[in-house]
User: What shape does this take?
Amino acid sequence: MSDNVPETQSAEFEQEPPNFGEWIQATLAIMEYPATQGGVFCLQWWEHPEAVARFRALHQQYLVAREKGEMSDWWVHHWDLHAKALFDPQTGVFRDCSAGHRPRETRRILDVTGQELGAEGFPAVAANWEPAWY
Assistant: This one.
């Protein structure tokens, strides 16, 4: 073992990477305050599909950063950006849950019915993987 690496850190990286459940519980357990002034968190975060998608993306990038030893980069370029999108009291995923969890049917959610899948021209747009705006 290198003299530069504390024994506890070395032992941490010898362990199996955490699965999503272990990671999310441990990560949320160390958060002291949401990222923005007056930030909002929902104790039923798993009832918010966008939050789950963002947390899963954060977990994937955490595993990459952990493997590469780039945790500072993960905090700054991944967690901080997603935290704002999750916890912002005006625009964040949990904005409607400031007084407690609000059921999906009472939250402001995009009303996408799936009808666009059969609309003329949609298949061509969906097949083009490159965004047209750049």
About this structure: Helices lie at 7-14, 20-30, 49-68, 71-87, 122-127. The two ends are 48 Å apart (CA to CA).
